[in-house]
Structures are given as structure tokens and as C-alpha cells.
Amino acid sequence: MEFGGLVEYLENKTILLTGGAGFVAKSIKNPNLRDQMFKDVDFIVNCAATTDFFERYDVALATNTIGILNLLSFAKKCIKLKKLLHLSTAYVSGERDGIVPEKAFEFGETLKKTFTKLDFEIEHELATHKLSQLRENEASEATINATMREFGIERANHFGWPNTYVFTKAMGEMCLEQFKEDVYTVILRPTMILSTYKEPFPGWIEGLRTIDIIIASIGKGKMSFFLGKPTLIVDLVSMSMCTSDMVVNAMILGMVFGENGMIYHVGSSIKNPIYVSQAYDYVYNYFTENPLFDHKEEKPIIVTKVKLFQHIFTLNIYIAIRFLLPLKILQLVANIPFLRCYKDVYAKNMKKLQTVMRFIQKFKHFALFNGIFEDTNSERLREELIKGSGNLEIMEAFNFDPNSIDWEDYIINTHIPGLIKYVII
């Protein structure tokens, strides 16, 4: 099939449903559409998720875990269904070092020893009970949000996961594997997703996530230090490669390829690694040559090289001596009647520091992650594409080989310009 014909084929046979997995499974109101889908659907791609690392526990559970059960309920009614592809994240592995295998979780598996077993139903009951208590006590919405976010982190840490997002995604994977019955499932676990590489056009991205928040902060002159080891590998993947992996899975959906429940890591750490020091150098070099413009100050923003700290302890000492102590002195000075003009200076700088400290807390798991993601199954899928297609245009269009990316060229000439064009400006 020619490339253009393939696009037309997919366009004519695709139904896009927006909303969480629970919404899709329970809220298709049109009975004719619903019945038609039950008769005709042969491939389901589930991308529904809340990706906030510290989302409210009840919200994250509803979408990332319980939503999977609703999706399976829908999938089991699709009489022609050949495959259900679920998009997860490679970081469900937690803070594991070394080679991370493409391996499914056991139901109830935890990442550290606990006296209590991990049970998603109990977790759902705990979250529901906590929320009910807060509402019975007439807590404000701000208090409810803060408490439920903190509760999610507490439960995730209890079982060995660093944040609510990866914890609830891991439970979602467990539910998919445990309750799929005859549904043929595939789980894609991408690493940190950057902008499109070539298709449909270079550099497109929506919103600030993970590493892009750090890139934007450096470009705006708001970050001069961070947590990280220069010699660690940062596992990046282009959005194009992640979607190409999905499309290739769709192209071979009529084939029995691997066992039910296959896991595919989509990343670069084994085949084309980029080191933390390299990534920071590329970002620094870009903004040195192409500075952002501060319209308020009416001048280009001068960036500085980010100072990396390999341990949270040494970073905290640096923050205390370099920033907290001077700010404390400034706060005392600002309380002197004729020097109260410095209160605004204190407030502004304290806010900047608190923002950076929140970033560090949010991304410390990724900043110090020392794992490398095996991609044996993804490599086999690439080989299957080459063997089954023979069409160079299709292979190029749906390329998801990390070896094809020149990181310096991609980050400097495609990703950062795209980030500025579609998100920052």
C-alpha cells in the first residue's frame, strides 16, 4: 500500500473519542454509534491519562487506574477487536538502577517491601473515604486539593513509587494484565517525550512537561542551578517515534506478533544515549546564540551555565548559604521602617527560589534516575516493519529507530525552536 493510500485508509477507519477512559466506556450516548463500534472496532488505542506527577489521588486513580477497567469493559464488547494498545510510561519502574526489562507487573506487586499488599480496590476506598471526610468537615476546595495531592504522594511512597502519576499508571497496567481475559493487549512505555522529529512537521509540541519546563526556565534566565549527575543518561524520545510505534502496531494488528501482554519500551538510552552534561550544553549553546527577549526590561535574556549538584544534601547546603541566608537578612532589613521598600525585592526573590525548589522536588526522580530501558521488543517490531513493508517511504514515515536521531542537531535546530514557537511565545 502506498503511503498516501495508507493515510487515507486510516482516516476512513478511525474514530477519535476524547475524554478519560471512564468517559469513553460509559458515556457514549448515541446507541447507534455505540452498537456500530461494538460491531466494527478492531483496534483500540488508549492515551487517556492525567500526567500531573502530584495529581489529586482520587483524580489520578479514577483516570489512570479505574479508567482501565471501564476501557476493558468496552473492549470486551467489540466482537472484532484484535488488539488494545495502552500508552503508559517507562517510569512505572520507579527508581530502579541498571537495565529495566520490558516486563509486566505481577498483580499487587510493589517496589519495596511493605506489611500491606497493594490492592487497587483498597486504594480506591481509601481515597474515597479521605475525600468524604474532607467534605463532611466542610474543607475548602484548596484544602481538599492540597490534602488529596499529599495523600497520593504518601500512598505512592509507601509502596516504593516516587510520585502519584507513575504509581497510578503502574496500578493501571496491573489491572489491564489481570482483567483482560481474551483481549489481546500491548503496552507502550515511552520515556521522556519531546517534540515531533519530522512528521507531520518538525518541532510541534503541546504544553510544558518534564524536561521542557527546565529548558524554558533556563531560556528565561530563571534557573542557574539544579539537581543532576553529568555522567547519567537522560532517556529522550521524539513524539514522532512514539506515535510511529503505535501506527506500526496497528499495521500488523492482523498478525500474531509476540505473546499477549507485550511491553514495548520506546526510548533511546540503550541504542543512542544522550548524557545529562550534553543536554545542558545544547540548551545553553542555543540560548547563548538565540536569546529570548525580555519585553518588560526591553533587552535580551542572558543565560548562565547551570550548576549541577549530584546529591540533594549538597544542593540544600548550597541553597541555604547562597540564597536562604541572604534572603533572611533582606527580610530583617525590610522590616526597618525606612527600608520597607525592600519588601517587594524580598518577596520577588523568595518566589523565584520557591519555584526552583518546587521544580527540584518534582523532577528529582528523573534528574537522578540511573536506569537504562531495554528495548528488545521495540527492536523486533522495527525488524518486522522492514521485513513486511519493503517500501522505503513507509519505513521512513514510520521510523522509530532512536539511532536515526542526531541529538545535537535535533535539540538545537528542531526541538527548542519548536518549543519556543508552539509553547513559550
Automatic annotation (TrEMBL):
Superkingdom, taxonomy of origin: Eukaryota
SUPFAM superfamilies (alphabetical): NAD(P)-binding Rossmann-fold domains (SSF51735)
Enzyme Commission designation: 1.2.1.84
GO biological process annotation, one example: long-chain fatty-acyl-CoA metabolic process
RNA-binding keyword on record: no
Domain Thioester reductase (TE): residue ranges: 34-251
Keyword Heme annotated: no
Catalysed reactions listed for this entry: a long-chain fatty acyl-CoA + 2 NADPH + 2 H(+) = a long-chain primary fatty alcohol + 2 NADP(+) + CoA
Record key words, sorted: Lipid biosynthesis, Lipid metabolism, NADP, Oxidoreductase
GO terms, molecular function: alcohol-forming long-chain fatty acyl-CoA reductase activity; alcohol-forming very long-chain fatty acyl-CoA reductase activity
CDD domains: FAR_C (cd09071)
Domain spans labelled Fatty acyl-CoA reductase C-terminal: 324-423
Similarity remark: Belongs to the fatty acyl-CoA reductase family.
Record-linked PANTHER family: ACYL-COA REDUCTASE-LIKE PROTEIN, PUTATIVE-RELATED, MALE STERILITY PROTEIN 2-RELATED
Function in brief: Catalyzes the reduction of fatty acyl-CoA to fatty alcohols.
Protein name: Fatty acyl-CoA reductase
